Amino acid sequence: MKTLSLVISLVCVGVSFSAQYCPRGWSYYPPTGSCFTTLNKHLYWDEARRECASLAWGSSLASVSTREENNFVINLIKRHGANEKVGFWMGANDLRREGVYVWLDGYKVTFTAWASTEPNNYYNEDCAFWRKPMGYKWYDGNCEKYWMGQRGMSAVCKMPAL
């Protein structure tokens, strides 16, 4: 009986070490083993980038690589960002080379959900965001200025699950 108890204990310990989880306040996305959360305060893009990075090891402004992951983030925004009027920053930007969008880790943006007229660089716009009033389509915005009469926007952060 002691042997069976030891085997069951070892199996349980092994499961607990291999299970992935997210810190309190983060939502788990299983296909990528990632956690997402929202910052519900008005920040410029670089402020949002720094604040996401300060939350946890490996955390940054969110990147998404598939329609399903994008939809997951949109649903997260709908649940936890209801007070935001304009939008939510993501990590996509073309700060280094106009028209070439990359994520903060330097990887090229391959999946997109741009609105039909975006990205347009209308007012020196280099930072991407989900625009709430337009059905959460992607827009490019000026990283450092007021947007639609408000200072900055909220943001979505992403990190690897623990």
How is this structure best described in words?
This protein is an alpha+beta fold and 162 residues long. It has one domain (22-160): Mannose-Binding Protein A, subunit A (Mannose-Binding Protein A, Chain A). Helix content is 26%, strand content 27%. It contains three helices and nine strands. The protein has helices at 2-18, 45-55, 67-80, and strands at 27-29, 34-43, 60-61, 87-93, 127-131, 137-141, 146-147, 150-151, 153-160. Strands 1, 2, 3, 4, 5, 6 and 9 form a seven-stranded mixed β-sheet that branches. It starts with a helix and ends with a strand. The relative contact order is 0.24.
Write a brief caption for the model.
With 162 residues, this protein is α+β, with helices and mostly antiparallel strands. It has helices spanning 2-18, 45-55, 67-80, and strands spanning 27-29, 34-43, 60-61, 87-93, 127-131, 137-141, 146-147, 150-151, 153-160.
